[in-house]
Amino acid sequence: MNQRTRWKILPPAPDEYIKASGLPPVIAQLLYNRGVKLGEIDAFLAADRRLEGNPFLLPDISQAVSRVYKAVLSREKIAVYGDFDVDGVAATAILVEGLSWLGAEAIMYIPDRLSEGHGLKRAALEKLRAQGASLVITVDCGITDLEEVKQAQKTGMDMIITDHHIPLGSLPQAIAVIDPRREDSAYPYPDLAGAGVVFKFLQALFRRDRKEEWLAGFLDLIALATVTDLVTILGENRYLVKEGLRELNNTSRVGIQEMVKLAGLEVGELDGEDVSWVLGPRLNAAGRMENASTSYRLLTTQSAEEARLLAMELEERNAERQQLTSEVLSRAKERLAAKLHLPVLIDGDESYSVGVIGLVAGKLVDEFYKPSIIVSLGPELCQGSCRSIPEFNIVSVLAECRGLLTAFGGHPLAAGFTVPRENFPQLAERVTKIAMERLGRLGLRPEIVIDAELPLSTFSGEAFSLIQKLAPFGQGNPQPTFLTRRVEVIECRNFGNQGEWLRLKLKQGNVTWQAVDFEPRKTKEENPPYIDVVYNLEKSHWNGEEVVSLNIRDFAPAGPR
């Protein structure tokens, strides 16, 4: 059997770095791999307020603060215009609550994914104007909506943009455009989530009132948004997520408490993995299947009974989302079967629900390691969702095709667009041509980046506890990954509903470890007696006890001794 992935072993840290760090070699190596300089080690490991950025370094922040205080003093109605994913919903909740603490009258608007899509819409802005809003503050959106902002300003509504997406060549003509990704931004941490940008905005607003300590109560929402939105967990995000997980584990929000309980988790024991794989998908399910207002109400309600009902509703929506994703994925794979030789997978159909096309595209990337674009075809306009691989910046490819598109935006690995139906065949043809030029000769295979090649004996004693000091893990600071060569498989059995997973006992010298492999593999009879194994360390339950075990990422037959 061959390994599924390419293994990239990072170079060893220089001896002088390891010695100067004063840390065990494996920890020093992990820090070196993550680009942590010697003078930054203490702050990285502590993940404390030393990592915080000054909010007044954000572009246009002073203009925004002044305009909000003017609105508060003159009793203007402020509208917060959000987005329907976890980041957008959390950011909306944070800003509405924060503005109300200032004494502002704040109303919220979260667009409908199915009928409106991402970004500002003129009809929605007109509705807010009719409700008496004279100031609109966007969260997690707006940076590319130049015409909509211009029109709103013409009708007498002032606009403040807060966003974290990459701007176009021009900025919206708003009172203030707060985005750490602006080319002229002096802010040291450009990778904040949308909720993170809003949090910094509130820090600037509350600094005048000396009430910044109130803001700690928002950190649970910041953690949910930052982890789920897959921004890098480095710099200030590291501090925000660490403190946010602490706040999440002590949350007073009854909606989160009910959601955690129904998901079979426990407040007090939540970590980043629980946010990524359990809580985030549930909060996202509302916006995918119906309307994200359910998630907003869950995060903001103070009624225990309403919290229970909303958490149950999210549980149902999540189950529906899983079923629908499975159905669309199955249909897409059938239709793409004859196109798997192409370097990019593109498929569109009238039956594809806008709410799950991004999830389906992501699953295709996971399975085939090719950029994937899934499109929900409408009578006139089509909505597409893209997921990509590091070798193919999908948002820059969309920028090259912008003449065919009505709108687009996103990140290098995940983006979305709207395209007139008549332009969709030409778009698919052009993207395929670009992919053939850039990916055609690369021999694509997913790559696992390995922190170090070490014997199993390295991880006895306190090693696991020391490695956990690098948490919280996520984008930019992944779970440490190790390679150990020539490990003896002394026990191996299949488990799972269809016996598709493996549970192993591995031995090297006088050290024995339990291991699990959740990737579909060959049966235990087909596996070699000695393997080279790539893995993460994790805590798991084994025969009723909590133990540290190996979570296998890949393995291959060991070479000769």
Walk me through this protein's architecture:
- With 561 residues, this protein is α/β, with parallel strands linked by helices.
- The protein has three domains: 6-46 and 448-557, OB fold (Dihydrolipoamide Acetyltransferase, E2P), CATH 2.40.50.460; 55-216, Alpha-Beta Complex (inorganic pyrophosphatase (n-terminal core)); 340-439, Diaminopimelate Epimerase, Chain A, domain 1 (Roll).
- The protein is 38% helix and 21% strand.
- It has 18 helices and 18 strands.
- It has helices at 15-21, 25-33, 41-46, 61-73, 86-101, 122-130, 146-154, 194-207, 219-228, 236-248, 254-262, 272-289, 293-300, 304-336, 357-368, 394-400, 424-439, 463-467, and strands spanning 6-9, 77-81, 105-109, 133-139, 158-162, 176-178, 345-349, 372-376, 381-387, 407-410, 414-420, 447-450, 452-453, 482-495, 501-508, 511-517, 530-542, 545-557.
- Strands 3-2-4-5-6 form a five-stranded parallel β-sheet, with helices on both faces. Strands 7-8-9-11-10 form a five-stranded mixed β-sheet, with helices on both faces. A five-stranded mixed barrel has the order 14-15-16-18-17.
- A hairpin with a 4-residue loop joins strand 8 (372-376) and strand 9.
- Helix 13 packs antiparallel against helix 14.
- The longest helix has 33 residues, at 304-336.
- It starts with 5 loop residues before the first strand and ends with a strand.
- The mean pLDDT is 92.
